[in-house]
Amino acid sequence: MSFSTETESEGAPPGADGLASQFLREFHQRLLAAPRKRLELQSLVDIFLSIRPEVIDSAERLGELLTALKMLESSGAIVLPKGKRGYSNSSSGKFRLPLWVTVSPSSSSENRLSAQSIPWVPVLNFCSTFTSQRQILLASVVNQFLIENRGRQIIQVPLRERSLQLFGDEKQLDKMCRDGAIFDGKLPISAIGAREVEYPLVVTTFEPGHPVLIVENHHTYFSFCEWNRISRMFSAIVYGAGMFLKKAERSIDNVMQEFGADQIFYFGDIDLNGFEIPISINRVRKGEGRTSLLAADSYYGYALQFGVQAEDKSWTGNRTGKLQEICDEVSAFLPALSASALAVMFAGRRIAQECLGLEALTSGQCSKPTDTSI
Questions:
Q1: pLDDT-derived band at 18, boundaries 50, 70, 90
Q2: Starting at the edge strand that comes first in sequence, how are the strands of the sheet with 236-239 ordered?
Q3: Above 90 in pLDDT, residue 34?
Q4: CB of 236 closer than 8 Å to CB of 204
């Protein structure tokens, strides 16, 4: 498909804002649906090619993009940069492409989309009640994708790949997705061939048949890996990377399955954040009937006995209130030592897990953790 600089007004549906071709209408809608009004050149290229994948290998693709942008500008849909600095030459010097465009708001009553006028696919019939222009625009993009793929088996791809294809923004579906569905839980992302992908964990593996240990910080991760090469106490040592573990916690199950482990221990800093990580993860895992993280009690015991207490500057909110909220969960996670750990935290102090280092581990000062959870 090539573009003419003339527009066809005949047959243009209401609300098309003078954009006659189906491609230009869809291109305009995708631009309007983008989270930012100023779109950089790469985003423009991504959106353009997501609608016209057949020209990806064409030498004329940039020329077609430029023509489409000029047509949108002539209709008032976008504003191109002023001056030479707003443009970049292609490698051949043939095209001067805008480094960015600004999307004009479509706010007049004649240009407003009506959800009731859109022929929704059956699974999106609920969208006919939408009143927000942005919500209608986002839904119309999904609707068009489902129409184009009607009767086909849609490959399940990572969420951000599908998001980039649909909206020219790889994170748009992240903002819309809750519990595997979009539009307030009404459309599962599987319907648009998307799937959430777990963050990968950094894992050092040993032989199966033993528990798994997760540690919060990377220096401690190094020391435990070195020590475990000799002690062989754990099948795997996992680097939790602080709060990152909350995003990657489903990957824990993969590690357990790979090594046939029925126990997974956690060892972190003795501070508010250090306990909030395993506690919040266990809330989710218990609610779904999955194996909870166990406190590496002997390691926490060593830290409480030999670790240096320092002022905790990592928590700036209402420390006392937050600690009171999680007291019972700390007690259930680390029953025999919770009173001592809470006393440290209520005093505004913390103990870094690095106090249990490679020297202490190799000298045999800690016993194997046990399951003491309530």
A1: very low
A2: 202-205, 236-239, 212-215, 264-267, 294-295
A3: no
A4: yes
Give the pairing of strands 78-79 and 38-40: unpaired
What residue spans define the domains of the chain? 22-103, 115-195, 202-362
CB contact at 8 A, 159 and 173: yes
Q: Name which of 132, 98, 88 is nearest 112 in CA terms.
A: 132
Segment 108-122, tens digit of pLDDT: 444 567 888 889 999
Please tell me the distance from the alpha carbon of residue 205 to that of residue 358, in angstroms, as a whole number: 18
Dihedral sign, Cα of residue 182, residue 188, residue 194, residue 195: positive
Asked if residues 18 and 12 have their Cβ atoms less than 8 Å apart, the reply is yes
pLDDT category, 32, cuts 50, 70, 90? Answer: confident
pTM of the model: 0.61
Amino acid 265: pLDDT: 96
pLDDT number for residue 8? 38
Residues 179-195: what's their mean pLDDT?
A: 94
Residue 2, pLDDT score: 43
How far apart CA 87 and CA 80 sit, in angstroms, is: 9
Residue 327, H or E segment = helix 319-333
Report how far residue 362's alpha carbon sits from residue 65's, in angstroms, rounded to the nearest whole number: 63
What secondary structure letter does DSSP report for 232? Answer: -
Q: Whole-angstrom Cα distance, residue 195 to residue 197? A: 6
Token output for 227:
């020590």
Do residues 255 and 213 make contact, with C-beta atoms less than 8 angstroms apart?
A: no
**Secondary structure (DSSP) of 80-115:** PPPSGGGEEE-TTS--EEESEEEEPP--STTT---G
Phi, psi (rounded to 5 degrees) for 338: -65, -35
Helix ranges (DSSP H) in 115-193: 133-148, 159-167, 172-176
Q: Could you name the CATH architecture of 202-362?
A: 3-Layer(aba) Sandwich (3.40)
Considering the chain, what percentage of its residues have pLDDT values greater than 70? 88
Kind of pairing, strands 264-267 and 38-40? unpaired
